[in-house]
Amino acid sequence: xxxxxxxxxxxxxxxxxxxxxxxxxxxxxxxxxxxxxxxxxxxxxxxxxxxxxxxxxxxxxxxxxxxxxxxxxxxxxxxxxxxxxxxxxxxxxxxxxxxxxxxxxxxxxxxxxxxxxxxxxxxxxxxxxxxxxxxxxxxxxxxxxxxxxxxxxxxxxxxxxxxxxxxxxxxxxxxxxxxxxxxxxxxxxxxxxxxxxxxxxxxxxxxxxxxxxxxxxxxxxxxxxxxxxxxxxxxxxxxxxxxxxxxxxxxxxxxxxxxxxxxxxxxxxxxxxxxxxxxxxxxxxxxxxxxxxxxxxxxxxxxxxxxxxxxxxxx
Amino acid sequence: xxxxxxxxxxxxxxxxxxxxxxxxxxxxxxxxxxxxxxxxxxxxxxxxxxxxxxxxxxxxxxxxxxxxxxxxxxxxxxxxxxxxxxxxxxxxxxxxxxxxxxxxxxxxxxxxxxxxxxxxxxxxxxxxxxxxxxxxxxxxxxxxxxxxxxxxxxxxxxxxxxxxxxxxxxxxxxxxxxxxxxxxxxxxxxxxxxxxxxxxxxxxxxxxxxxxxxxxxxxxxxxxxxxxxxxxxxxxxxxxxxxxxxxxxxxxxxxxxxxxxxxxxxxxxxxxxxxxxxxxxxxxxxxxxxxxxxxxxxxxxxxxxxxxxxxxxxxxxxxxxxxxxxxxxxxxxxxxxxxxxxxxxxxxxxxxxxxxxxxxxxxxxxxxxxxxxxxxxxxxxxxxxxxxxxxxxxxxxxxxxxxxxxxxxxxxxxxxxxxxxxxxxxxxxxxxxxxxxxxxxxxxxxxxxxxxxxxxxxxxxxxxxxxxxxxxxxxxxxxxxxxxxxxxxxxxxxxxxxxxxxxxxxxxxxxxxxxxxxxxxxxxxxxxxxxxxxxxxxxxxxxxxxxxxxxxxxxxxxxxx
Lengths: 315, 561
Description:
The complex is a heterodimer.
Chain A: H1 15-45, H2 62-90, E1 101-106, E2 109-113, E3 119-121, E4 123-127, E5 132-138, E6 143-146, E7 154-156, E8 162-166, E9 172-178, E10 190-196, H3 198-209, H4 220-231, E11 265-266, E12 271-272, H5 275-283, H6 285-288, H7 301-312
Parallel strand pairs in A: 1-5, 4-10
Antiparallel strand pairs in A: 1-2, 2-3, 5-8, 6-7, 6-9, 9-10, 11-12
Helix pairs in contact in A: 1-2, 4-7, 5-7
Chain B: H1 19-25, H2 29-57, H3 69-102, H4 111-130, H5 157-185, H6 198-230, H7 234-238, H8 240-257, H9 260-274, H10 281-295, H11 310-322, H12 324-338, H13 347-370, H14 372-378, H15 382-412, H16 418-444, H17 460-491, H18 529-534, E1 545-547, E2 553-555
Antiparallel strand pairs in B: 1-2
Helix pairs in contact in B: 2-3, 2-4, 2-17, 3-4, 3-5, 3-6, 3-15, 4-5, 5-6, 6-8, 6-9, 6-10, 9-12, 9-13, 9-15, 10-12, 12-13, 13-15, 13-16, 15-16, 16-17
Organism (chain A): Deinococcus ruber
Membrane topology (chain A): Multi-pass membrane protein
Subcellular location (chain A): Membrane
């Protein structure tokens, strides 16, 4: 990952924007430097030298005025021309086909679903070298989907389905973030985009679409964890596909946890997904992510240990 | 049995009203103008402290000082305070003080309404700062629906926040009416529109922007309250994006109404300190009119990420780029005014020069948002935060500080202390640029705006820490300015009527001017009545003219006398 994602595009969609950004920045810097240097030169050249009387009174010059208006207008016309060209290349029309991936934004995590039933949170997997069409909507407030190395950003609005092309030219991992203020945990609504070679992508998707396996009989801690999961009614908000839940799943309130252990980030990017971090999250939910919709649950240390063993076994 | 005091002829019948009572009850435009500025100074301290606390929270990644919603409350209060209760009252203060003086009027057209407007604004500010007692608003000054609706932001503070802006907004709208009528009807004999001083021109045009922009805000705030208090669901069951259309139809002109009078001040200062008339008066004046119109036609460039569709985005991208042209005309003409002048570097001119550099930087970075695809990448990152602080702080507020140093002798009869003022100036320039220059880089690194914390990615920690430290340098600079303002009132060097050798009518009266402003006004034949008085052999309207090679009438250029 580069320090300046805007200047390290990894996609034929982001590349033209980067080129235009560089061009505009150079032009802007040129205009700024001209103004600043002329100002500094005038301040030095025409400084008051202690002479009495007033300098010559110049009231203006229409030719000069018209010349710089024309120059500015030409610059604007050029930028406008470039804008039209680049916009068409970086945000192509989208209403010709059904979307590949459905993106649902929540306070405060990203849900990614494929038509074949795979669901992930915080982790968008796409095939490398292909344009992928996203359909984006929100369940609560306005969010914004931004993965600057791969695509333009677009708002994610409740009741509205925006569409966005995204593409990664090569396999790799790219960071993304919510860019529209969406409440207290706007800061922790990050995601990663993982671009995989096509064959690997198909395998990953098939695995992700499958239901979760029950805890191995030899893993007693995981079995106890599954029991805790049911007893404290994690299923009221979270779904684990293929697992019995003591509570009927009421909808996508919290992230789908079916293949939780395969994910890299936890809780919208506050933490990386390791067993220690997961235990820290379960122990101090509201301190780790103040304002998160998940409360700090009154769990004993052994329950936390079992629950994390169970969740980390959901490969 | 009480005895009446004997009525000596020289004894006042009643106790003289206290200074505070005079300020509270005055309908004099100068007193009202200064009260606006005093109120703004109080809110500047509040808003500035809020900013410093926010910068402390962001100094290092993962900081816990203001975790979560607390930071959002500071964010909301800071933005609302600075836009509505610092910059706006500062500019209304200058307009109130200066407009009647510059056009040779005794007062504003409606003095009592003027006082009413002031106290409505103060009332709005009080409402805003009462809101923390009912749960401070945390939805941001832009208050996007549906986040600002009850399910997501239940605290009552949001309703007080709305009420604060509605009440203050009514006051400001009334002020706009006052400014428009004053500028149209109370100009002295001979003060044609084409002879209006630049500040009067721009603050008068500003009246139109206020009059048409603020009702959009009032309307949308009422709609929000209909939702919040009556459950109408205009932005939830209706269209959440509708809020943004109304809000920015107010909000973008708002940016211009926060800078037009500031441009007016700069357009007064640069000529006086360069000893030359403003270059291209007509172009500077008409570009203001162009900006007033265009300011309403660019609003949707705040919404390029919404997905409005390419035709809409192209239209608003075009108008947003076009507005750079009249803005550029102003910058060019300020520079051309210095050309072949005799430039004096006292504090007003130093602030004006810093203004030009910083405002141009902010303007140029603004053009990058008009280039729609760049906006698709950079909107809602720290690049935007950097940009609009360059325009509103480095631009508008620095221009106001230039104006403050310029007009302080008129306000008080004394100069601001030059040495203390220079310390303040350099700390402000270094601090301001230190805070916000690096935020462009943070934006390019992908740091979203309005976040209370951020991951420890390469470069983020160092730049944020640098920004925070600079914030405190800036704080010290502004503190020195406040000390200077208070101290120079009694300790400053006496200034007299016309300390800068100015040309507009305000320099004709006493410093500070008495009630009624003028005892005698000179006949007015040109844009610079005081130049004419001081140079009876070289009056502007009697100046020999010649046609240049293009056939345009051109003032004759002469060397030093």
